[in-house]
Amino acid sequence: MHRPPLGPAEIVVDLAAIRANARLLRQTAGVPLIAVVKADGYGHGMVESARAALEGGAEWLATATIEEALALRAAGVEGPLLCWITTQHSDHRAAADAGIDVSAYSVEELDAIAAALEGRAEPARIQLKVDTGLSRGGAPRAAWAEVFARARAGEEAGLWRVTGIWSHFACADEPAHVANDRQEQAFRDALALADQAGLRPELRHLANSAAAILRPSSRFDAVRCGIAMYGLDPAPGEATEIGLVPAMTVRAPLVMVKELSAGDSVSYGHLWTADSPTTVGLVPVGYGEGIPRHAFRRDAPEAAAQVGIDGKRRPIRGTVCMDQVVVDLGGDHPPVGSDVIVFGPPAAGGPSAQDWAEACGTINYEIVTRIGGRMTRRYVDGDATEPIR
Ligand SMILES: *Cc1c(COP(=O)(O)O)cnc(C)c1O
C-alpha cells in the first residue's frame, strides 16, 4: 500500500459545548465551579477552553502546574486561578505577582515559598492540599498540624493568605466505594484541625467531576471539574446524565479505497486477514496523532475501535500505524475525500471518545488528552447539537 500525503486531519472543538457544559455543572453543583484546564485543556486547548468555561459561568480556573497557570495569565486570562504542582524550580514569586493560588503540601515547601516571597509587600495566595487517602500529592495526616501551624505563622507574618484547603478523591467514579466516605470524613477532620490552627480559608473543595455530579455532600464551597466540562462522562455506568455534550470531534478525510480478496492480510504483522472479499479504506491518522496502538489488538481483533463514515461504523483492521489506519468498508465504496469521524458527539455520526476508551482498555480522559500530533485544532462555536462539517 503506497503512502499518500497526510490529509487535513483535524480536531474540531465546539466552544459552545464547553460553555453549555460549564453552565450545567455550575447549576447541578450549586456552588462555584473551578474549571480544570490542565494538560492543554484535556487536549481541547487550554486558553480557549478556559475562556469558554468562564463564559459558561465558571468562577475559577485550575491547572496542574505553575507554568500552565502563568501561560494562562500571559494569554490575558484573568480571575481566580489555582495550580497544584510545583517543583524546587517553580517561580513562586512570579506566581504571586500574577495572582495565582499555589497549592502547598509541606512545611519545607512553605519555607521555600516564604524565601521566594521575601520583601514582597502584598500577601501571596496559598492553598493547602491535604492527603485524605489518595496517597498522591498533599500533606499526609500526620503532618496536618505542623503544616497548618506553619501556614498560620506565614499569615501572621504577612507573607500569604491561606485562601483554600482542599483534597482529591481516589474513587469518585465508583460512588459506592468505601474510600469515598472515608476521604470525605478525613477532609472534615482536616478542616476542623485547620480551624483550630486559626485558618479561615474561603474555599474548601474536594469534588472532581464525578463527585460534583454524584456526591452532593462533597461539594463544600466549590467543585473542580475537568472531564465533564469537556462533555465526557466522568463515571460511565453511573447516574451521571445531566445533558453534557462532548466538545471534541476528531475527523479526517478518507484518502484511499481498495478491494481485498479473501486471504489478504492487512498492516504490520498481518494481524488481520480478510475471510471474504471486502473493501478497505485508508484514514490518515495514527499513533503520531495520539491514536492508541491498542485500538487494534491481536488477541481481540473484533473489539477493535471503529470510525464513522456516512453514518456507518467502520472497524479498524490490522495494526495501527504511525501515520494511518486501515478500516473495513465491508464492500462499500464511499468516495475518496469522505468525512471520517474518528470520534465525537452523537450528532457527528461516529463513535464517542468513550467507545474508543472501551476498545482501547482505557478511560475517555486519556483518549482526548493524548490526541494531537500533526492534527490541527479548529474552533467552532455553533449549536452543539449540529453535526460538524
Ligand atoms: C485533574 C484533576 C481534577 C479534575 O478531575 P475530573 O475528573 O477531570 O473532573 C480535579 N482535581 C485534581 C487535583 C485533578 O488533578
Automatic annotation (TrEMBL):
Its cofactor is pyridoxal 5'-phosphate. CDD domains: PLPDE_III_AR (cd00430). SUPFAM superfamilies: Alanine racemase C-terminal domain-like (SSF50621), PLP-binding barrel (SSF51419). Substrate binds at R136, M322. The active site is at K38, Y268. Catalyzes the interconversion of L-alanine and D-alanine. May also act on other amino acids. Belongs to the alanine racemase family. This is Alanine racemase. It comes from Nocardioides aromaticivorans.
